[in-house]
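User: New here, please read:
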Amino acid sequence: MGKNSKKERLIQAAIKLFAKQGYHNTTVAEIADEAGVAKGTVYWYFDSKEQLFWGIIVSGIELLNEKLVREAQIPNKTAIKKLKTIIRSHLDFFKESKNIVKMIQDSSVTPDKHFNKKIHKLRKESIDNLSKIIKEGQEGDEFVIDIESEELANFILGSIGGSYNPSVYKLEDVEETTDLILKIMLSGIKA
């Protein structure tokens, strides 16, 4: 799909307006105006404003999960290096897709039942995939073995998402922040 296709312009306009005004304060007419198309064009590509909103969120999370799956499958790479790549991928996403991240955060306050199930499924996939990498690290004596890999995966994903929220934290240097997160995770804070 071309960068200037009507569908892509609608998606970009929706991301901008949903992040700025919120879901409930954004109308289909505003999205169409921002994209430079007729209001009916929105319904040509999307069944509803809700489908457009949730489709953007699900696509963003799926993109992160795909990176996680690819990273987990790379042979001959240490679990620590895989973890570093995953942290960097999340931070890159936070930095490059601030508006989508804001939409994700806003959606968690008033989740839709259907998409809430999808989001939970995607979160579970993220945890499962990261857990595989952690198990590799545990078997290779890179990570502690006295904590379940699923618990560590949940903690790591929650820490990254909660600590580096682009709505309140200005992420300057992704590589430096990745190294900092990895240092805290691997060395802890105990003196």
Summary: The longest helix spans residues 113-139.
